[in-house]
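Cross-check.
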Amino acid sequence: MKSIKFIFEIVKKFPLLMLKNVFLVVIVGILGACSLFSMTPVIDFLIHSNSQELSPVTVRIVHYMEFLGLPVSLESLLLTVIVFVTMGSICQVFARYFILKAKYVVSKDIMIGSFKDFFSARWSFFSGSKQGELINTLTRELAVVGNAFGGMG
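Predicted model, tokenized:
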């Protein structure tokens, strides 16, 4: 329940950054599925010699290629696979970049908020505990939160 509340707070504070992350992750998934489906005709063309034994997925992809005016050959099908895999990889790089950017933006926000809380605390808070222990705990816990957020992607 706490993690859901944390996610809602982050989305509320940084809506554009979170929207970019979700959008890119969805695009990466779609391109991954397209690259997987685009391999089907290549395998069908290698295994089956005539066009009566092609799978329904291959028939549909061939139909789309003919509709777009693309030649239907093994080379063009391989090029389609390469294009989808390349586009997916490029989007994966951007998605990873924005996930890490979000991680550091969130970590920075939490760290600044924690420092503001420390600076506004009363003297009894600091005198009641060891200063080194406070700093180590703060640093360690902020790193854990940042890594946990970065691990969501």
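The mean pLDDT is 82. The CA atoms of residues 118 and 126 lie 9 Å apart. Passed to J.P. for a second look.
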